[in-house]
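Researcher: Good morning. I'm working through a list of sequences from a screen, and I'd like to move beyond sequence-only analysis. For each chain I'm collecting a predicted structure so we can compare shapes side by side. This is the next one on the list. No need for commentary yet; just the structure.
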Amino acid sequence: MSSSQRHSASRIIIATPRAIFRAFVDPEVLAKWRAPAGMSVELLAFDPRLGGGYKMILRYKSGGGRGKSSDDSDIVLARFEALDAEERIIETIVFESSDPAFSGTMRLTTTLKPVTGGTKVTFLAEDVPAGISEADHVAGMESALKNLANLLE
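Model: Good morning. C-alpha cells for this chain:
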C-alpha cells in the first residue's frame, strides 16, 4: 500500500458544533472520548491553540491489539494545524514507532456541519501510514465518534 491512504468516518451527533468543538480543545473531555473501544487514553501534554497540540498514550486494555509504539500501546503526537471554531479542526499526527510501516505524518481533518437534529462530524485521515489497515482505522474512528456522541447526547 502507498503512504497516500485516505480513510474516513462520519456520524450525526445530537449536539451543537460549539459543544463538539469544545470536546476537542478541553483535555478532560478529550480524554473521555478519544480512545477507541478496547483502549484507554492518558494525556501527557495538551496545548489547545493553533500550533499547539498534545501527546497521548493509547493503551490496549487486554492484549486486544498490536501497538505501534510498544506491545500494548500507541504514543501519539498531534499538532493543531487549524482550529476553526465550530467548523473544522486539522491535526497532524505522528505515531512514535520504530516500525517504518507506522512512520510518517498523518493529517486528520475533522469537519463539523450543522444538520437537522444535530451536527454531522466527519473524520478524514490522509497520508495514513501503510501499516494501519483501513478496516481497523475506520472502526477506530467510528468508535471514537460513538464515544463522543455518548458523551454529548
